[in-house]
């Protein structure tokens, strides 16, 4: 087995803050992360802040989900017709739902930390440059209001490493 070492989760390229925002019906949802790459056993964490910019309402819940999507493309010599599309397989790796009963008035906000743990046995990495397979990880964060309105930030990219954090820390300190 040959391992690729560009996905160590503690490398500086993955330690940049990431902020995503969406606005809908007088409410503004901001999602912040401290880093973007995770490995087996890591806790994926995001801070969600819901602020009223032009309305009053109550937030019912916050949710975060980490999804793995694998796309398999058939190549020449696979014995199938070339017009057959790719096979797409998608799984949830982790999620969290937090109930909330916070009333939010104009100018006020509510902040929660959402988190989920990647299983220690999960070792499939992000693959985006291969010809026949692509594996991507995305995070979705949702705030649901009492009236059913949802503010969603979807397709937040996540890099997945096959290296646990303790191995990454050791290998980057040696290099």
Shape, principal axes of CA atoms: globular
Alpha carbon gyration radius: 19 Å
User: What's the CATH architecture?
Assistant: Sandwich
Task: List the helices and strands in order.
Answer: EEEEEEEEEH
Strand order of the largest sheet: 3-9-8-5-6
Largest β-sheet summary: 5 strands, mixed
Which class of secondary structure composition applies to the elements? mainly beta
- The first-level CATH class is given as Mainly Beta
Helix content: under 10%
Number of domains: 1
Given as residue ranges, the uncertain stretches (5+ residues, pLDDT < 50) are none
Strand tally, please?
9
The average pLDDT score comes to 86
Strand share of the residues? over 45%
Give the secondary structure arrangement, pairings included:
Blueprint lengths: L17 E7 L2 E7 L3 E2 L4 E10 L4 E16 L14 E18 L4 E9 L15 E13 L4 E11 L4 H10 L1
Tell me what you see in this structure.
- With about 180 residues, the chain is mostly beta strands.
- It has a single domain, classed as Immunoglobulin-like (Sandwich).
- It has a five-stranded mixed beta sheet with strand order 3-9-8-5-6, with no helix packed on it. The protein has a four-stranded antiparallel beta sheet with strand order 1-2-4-7, with no helix packed on it.
- The chain is globular, with a radius of gyration of 19 Å.
- The protein starts with 17 loop residues before the first strand and ends with a helix.
Notable traits:
175 residues, mainly beta, Immunoglobulin-like, five-stranded mixed sheet, four-stranded antiparallel sheet, 53% strand
